[in-house]
């Protein structure tokens, strides 16, 4: 590992850099870096000293050390002696009178002057003269650990602070805030009279801790390691280094992470505890067993102490910087490591005794909250009362399940199973909870494994057996095992009718009977009570999925209703599932975004809903292939395949098909066909095989490469089967109508009518393609003005990057408009060509050039100008020609002047400006100039 490293401290270094620059103008000063041990004072001082040396400044450095009888002026002697090893004292008449005084610090300077009351003042003046006479433009004197300095050193620092303003000497001292009242009082006095500047170092932010971990390891640490450091290092650079070193030595950088208290920190806590009385030490130890924050009244009750005794103990602990008061009446340890270090030396009997009395006190006042259950479970476990601990771990798990916090629930169940007696009633209850958690998480193999043994054990308890069967039915539904799930639901009939309604609705949805699914979900919503919001959330989710294929808006309304309920009831599992469903609807937008999907994935991973996270990866792939961000798209679908394969989820063939599409768009035909073949060997819904493969995979890839006849044929095949299974979402219905109209043999009237009156007509992606088709049909019929109006209506401005399918849709319109004599097809062609070249769709760009020549328009000789468009503008879809226009707009030119400069028509310039406003989201052209420069964030 690299050590030591300096990250962050940007503002502090900027201030100190200004002090170094002032030395060149003959102005010095005293700067004091203050903070706790390990906060990074020394490494910052070292970095500043190195920068000073790089600037050609002379650097002297010394430190004070802790001692009962400190050596007078030790830091100054060390600094001057070290400097004199490689330097000669200047032969200067102004410095000569002070050499005998400076000889107190360095005997090689000659005879030592006799001591006197003015010695400190003369020493200070001698150092000031030395700074004036050295050949360098200035001098930096570093004094480390001022808090341990002797009185003479402090007096000398005071003199220098008062007199360096007009001398090129920068004194840089480090000092601990709470170590020496004398040093603190001196610095405060100097600061009040403006003779010193202070830099108070605070703990590092989380991002800086992550950066420091990368620097120390010279590699990318795992997210678990970073989170662990952020929790336990307190933001102290020294602790980060120590903890990483301990992890590395123990070989734990890739494994489960224990709490490792850095050795220097542990010694510091031990030393501070040694300074307090026995009562305070016992209060600290008991409080540490309660957690980072504690109720002092509970500690007093458990230990049998009076309020006065506890108050005195807490005062001692506060004075030793171990605890901090939190209004109105609670206390916390200064940070997580303090809480871990305080009880580290307890023997097992002492720990058990304290845990027992604390548990008894807490149990007597318990409010039956989730936090109480968890804390009591910890205490009874530490006290050795396994039966009480297991009961409380199960209560903790139930609390977590009700909130949808599946990771916490799984951990609590694991703790319970560790303490259960094999074959006991408690173990059986823990297994029931385990089945439920795995089923909710979508971990089908683990749920079925845990439930298989239970169904045998509960044969004589029909109520509990039925509850387990419902949980197993949920797992089977997650695994796409419809017949087994139905049998399990039948076996549990009558036990929980409301939950049975929801699971039956999910079964109908899996069998693509969206009408029955909507009916059963609605029945569940009508029957569910206010005390079961998680059932209502699931019903809303199923209802949204059942209706979205026919009515996009109704599906969104159902998802939003469920999401609002999950938010109100604080149900993170259902919040992430419904947010993921809403994010899935974003795929149908003309400008699909991944914001809601990314937020849902974060929540899913946090709560342990890995099946939900896997499905979200599929949707993220769909967003990214619309913008040809193929590397990110491939990463997302690879993640989905890995998770779905482990969980044996029924969506696995879908993931392989989407990876096939990703390969196809990248031009990797063999890899595409291999993934299609792999998906074909797996159990797959007939609708996915007959509609998804031709309609969402082969047609999409053909469209991307501009092979319109092939895309039309594949979509026609998909539509033939889609009419039998209208419940399957099919976002390319509008493109089918557009291709039938643009390149079909019969004008596409029937196709347009079928889309207009069929399912998903109000889906934005279908609706805009249908309007493009309407415009082509009107233009062909000679209704030029109406064609232009319909096309303009479909073209309403949208900010952000334009997905490549829209370029193809516009290219079809441009080709038809040029043929039928309406609109302004030439700038439309140019826009499409620029966009296709920018996306790297060379085959489609060649087809665009051919269409332009056939229409009689000049083809730009060089359309690869996207290479000179800055990356941040490429992401917005800005073409090379639009970038040219943007530059001239930024210069203040008007449209006519831009047209003359670029040899364009004024109308074409107007189109480019309109596109720029649309892509950037600017309100007017005066805001456009700011987009020439890349964002600095």
Short structural summary:
The protein is mostly helical and 937 residues long. It contains 46 helices and 8 strands.
Using brief descriptors, characterize the structure shown.
single chain, 937 residues, mainly alpha, five-stranded parallel beta sheet, three-stranded antiparallel beta sheet, 46 helices
Mean pLDDT: 86
- Beta fraction: under 5%
Task: State the helix count.
Answer: 46
Strand order of the largest sheet: 2-3-4-1-5
Characterization of this structure:
- The chain has 937 residues and is mainly alpha-helical.
- It contains 46 helices and 8 strands.
- The strands form 2 sheets. Strands 2-3-4-1-5 form a 5-stranded parallel beta sheet, sandwiched between helices. Strands 6-8-7 form a 3-stranded antiparallel beta sheet.
- Strand 7 (323-326) and strand 8 (330-333) form a beta hairpin.
- Helix 12 (278-290) packs across helix 13, helix 22 (462-478) packs parallel to helix 24 (497-510) and helix 34 runs antiparallel to helix 35 (708-722).
- It is flat.
- The two termini are 30 Å apart.
Topology:
Blueprint: H1 10-23, E1 29-35, H2 41-54, E2 58-63, H3 74-84, H4 99-102, H5 119-133, E3 139-144, H6 151-163, E4 169-176, H7 181-192, E5 197-200, H8 206-217, H9 223-232, H10 237-250, H11 263-274, H12 278-290, E6 293-294, H13 296-303, H14 307-319, E7 323-326, E8 330-333, H15 336-341, H16 348-365, H17 370-383, H18 386-403, H19 406-419, H20 425-441, H21 444-457, H22 462-478, H23 482-491, H24 497-510, H25 514-527, H26 533-548, H27 552-569, H28 572-585, H29 595-607, H30 610-626, H31 630-647, H32 652-665, H33 669-680, H34 686-704, H35 708-722, H36 733-743, H37 749-757, H38 764-780, H39 784-794, H40 804-820, H41 825-839, H42 842-855, H43 871-874, H44 880-890, H45 895-902, H46 906-920
Helix pairs in contact: 1-2, 5-6, 6-7, 8-9, 8-10, 12-13, 12-14, 13-16, 16-17, 17-18, 18-19, 18-20, 19-20, 20-21, 20-22, 21-22, 22-23, 22-24, 23-24, 24-25, 24-26, 25-26, 26-27, 26-28, 27-28, 28-29, 29-30, 30-31, 30-32, 31-32, 32-33, 32-34, 34-35, 35-36, 36-37, 36-38, 36-40, 37-38, 38-39, 38-40, ...
């Amino acid at each position: 590992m690299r050590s030591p490293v300096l990250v962050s401290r940007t503002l502090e270094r900027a201030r100190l850099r200004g002090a170094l620059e002032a030395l060149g103008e003959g102005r010095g000063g005293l700067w004091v870096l203050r903070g706790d041990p390990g906060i990074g004072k020394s490494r910052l001082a070292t970095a500043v000293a190195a920068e000073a040396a790089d600037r050609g400044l002379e650097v002297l450095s010394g430190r004070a050390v802790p001692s009962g009888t400190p050596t007078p002026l030790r830091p100054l002697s060390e600094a001057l002696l070290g400097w004199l090893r490689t330097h000669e004292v200047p032969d200067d008449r102004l410095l000569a009178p002070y050499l005998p005084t400076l000889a107190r610090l360095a005997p090689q300077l000659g005879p030592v002057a006799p001591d006197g009351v003015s010695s400190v003042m003369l020493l200070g003046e001698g150092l000031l003269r030395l700074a004036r006479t050295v050949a360098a433009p200035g001098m930096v004197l570093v004094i480390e650990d001022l808090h341990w300095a002797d009185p003479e050193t402090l007096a000398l620092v005071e003199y220098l602070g008062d007199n360096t303003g007009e001398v090129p000497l920068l004194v840089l001292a480090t000092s601990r805030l709470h170590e020496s009242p004398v040093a603190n009082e001196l610095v405060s006095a100097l600061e009040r009279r403006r003779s010193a500047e202070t830099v108070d170092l605070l703990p590092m932010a989380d991002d800086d801790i992550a950066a420091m971990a990368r620097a120390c390891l010279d590699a990318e640490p795992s997210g678990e390691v970073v989170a662990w450091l952020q929790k336990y290092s307190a933001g102290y650079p020294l602790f980060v280094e120590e903890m990483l070193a301990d992890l590395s030595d123990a070989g734990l950088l890739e494994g489960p992470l224990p709490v490792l208290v850095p050795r220097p920190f542990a010694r510091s806590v031990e030393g501070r505890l040694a300074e307090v009385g026995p009562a305070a030490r016992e209060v600290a130890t008991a409080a540490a067993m309660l957690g980072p924050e504690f109720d002092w009244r509970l500690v007093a009750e458990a230990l049998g102490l009076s309020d006065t005794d506890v108050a005195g103990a807490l005062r001692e602990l506060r004075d030793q910087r171990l605890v901090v008061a939190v209004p109105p009446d609670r206390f916390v340890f200064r940070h997580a490591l303090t809480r871990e270090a305080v009880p580290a030396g307890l023997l097992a009997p002492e720990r058990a005794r304290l845990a027992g009395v604390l548990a008894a006190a807490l149990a007597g006042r318990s409010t039956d909250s989730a936090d109480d259950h968890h804390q009591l479970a910890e205490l009874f476990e530490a006290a050795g009362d396994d039966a009480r601990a297991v009961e409380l771990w199960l209560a903790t798990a139930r609390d977590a399940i009700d909130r949808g916090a599946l990771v916490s629930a799984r951990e609590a169940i694991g703790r319970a199973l560790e303490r259960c007696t094999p074959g006991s009633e408690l173990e059986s209850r823990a297994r029931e909870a385990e089945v439920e958690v795995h089923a909710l998480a979508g971990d089908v193999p683990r749920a079925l494994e845990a439930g298989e043994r239970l169904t045998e054990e509960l044969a004589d308890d029909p109520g509990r057996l039925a509850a387990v069967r419902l949980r197993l039915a949920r797992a089977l539904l997650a695994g796409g095992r419809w017949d087994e799930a139905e049998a399990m639901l039948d076996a549990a009939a009558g036990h929980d009718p409301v939950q049975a309604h929801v699971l039956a609705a999910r079964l109908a949805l899996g069998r693509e009977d969206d009408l029955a699914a909507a009916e059963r979900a609605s029945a569940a919503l009508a029957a569910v009570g206010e005390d079961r919001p998680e059932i209502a959330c699931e019903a809303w989710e199923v209802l949204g999925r059942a209706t979205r294929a026919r009515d996009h808006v109704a599906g969104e309304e159902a998802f939003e209703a469920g999401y609002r309920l999950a938010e109100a009831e604080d149900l993170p599992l259902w919040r992430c599932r419904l947010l993921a469903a809403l994010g899935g609807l974003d795929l149908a937008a003309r400008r699909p975004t991944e914001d809601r999907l990314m937020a849902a994935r974060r929540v899913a991973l946090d709560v342990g809903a890995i099946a939900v996270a896997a499905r979200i990866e599929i949707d993220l792939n769909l967003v990214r292939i619309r913008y040809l961000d193929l590397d990110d798209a491939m990463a997302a679908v690879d993640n989905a395949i890995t998770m779905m394969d482990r969980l044996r989820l029924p969506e696995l063939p879908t993931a392989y098909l989407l990876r096939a599409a990703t390969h196809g768009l990248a031009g990797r035909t063999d890899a595409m066909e291999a993934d299609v073949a792999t998906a074909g060997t797996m159990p797959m819904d007939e609708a996915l095989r007959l509609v998804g493969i031709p309609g969402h995979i082969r047609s999409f890839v053909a469209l991307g490469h501009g092979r319109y006849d092939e895309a039309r044929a594949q979509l026609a095949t998909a539509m033939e089967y889609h009419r039998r299974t209208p419940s399957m979402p099919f976002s390319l219905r509008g493109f089918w109508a557009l291709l039938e109209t643009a390149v079909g043999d019969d004008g596409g009237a029937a196709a347009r009518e079928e889309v207009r009156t069929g399912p998903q007509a109000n889906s934005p992606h279908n609706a805009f393609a249908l309007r493009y088709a309407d415009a082509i049909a009107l233009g062909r019929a000679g209704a030029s003005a109406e064609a232009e109006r319909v096309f303009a209506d479909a073209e309403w401005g949208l900010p952000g990057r334009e997905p490549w399918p829209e370029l193809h849709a516009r290219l079809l319109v441009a080709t038809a408009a040029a043929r039928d004599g309406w609109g302004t097809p030439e700038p439309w062609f140019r826009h499409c060509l620029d966009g296709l070249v920018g996306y790297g769709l060379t085959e489609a760009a060649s087809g665009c050039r051919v269409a332009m020549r056939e229409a009689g328009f000049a083809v730009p000789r060089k359309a690869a100008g996207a290479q000179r468009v800055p990356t941040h503008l490429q992401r917005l879809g800005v073409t090379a020609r639009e970038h040219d226009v943007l530059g001239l707009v930024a210069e203040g030119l008007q449209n006519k002047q831009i047209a003359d400069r670029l040899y364009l028509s004024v109308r074409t310039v107007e189109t480019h400006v309109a596109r720029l406003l649309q892509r950037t989201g600017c309100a007017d052209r005066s805001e456009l100039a700011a987009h020439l420069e890349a964002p600095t964030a």
